[in-house]
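Possible regression after last week's pipeline update?

I re-ran a chain I had predicted before the update to compare outputs. Posting the input and the new output here so someone can diff against the archived version. Not blocking, just want to make sure nothing changed silently.
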Amino acid sequence: MHRITELDWREFAGAGTRTGKLGVVRRNGVPHVTPIWFLLDGEDIVFTTWSDSVKYRALRRDPVFTVCVDDQEPPYSYVMLECEPQFTDDQEVVREWATRIGARYMGEEAAPQYGERNSGPGEYLVRGRITRVIGFADVAD
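New output (post-update):
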């Protein structure tokens, strides 16, 4: 097992269709973890969410979150990103990013459909400034 370098964690987190597991804290203090589709953009992680979701309400109340990205094959690796969110509901901006995210997970051909679906009224783009990264490769090695 060894720590992942910055170059390696960015490549790892951005590879293929790995999802992130978003961790927030509910109002009652109970942790909430949900998978997300995301992209990295410079020092940020970017994803969309619905305005009435648990994750959106938790992020508005307590503006910090964690995303864990891992692989499912030995020797196993993971990256955990600690972040501070900013939000926009500008539909053009949300659609642009939702389309780009859709391309990553569903392919270029289906991207416009996912961009449209995930950018209507009530959808938000979350841009999380990455403040800390912890990552290990070859955990089971």
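Follow-up from reviewer: compared with the archived run. The mean pLDDT is 96. Marking as no regression found.
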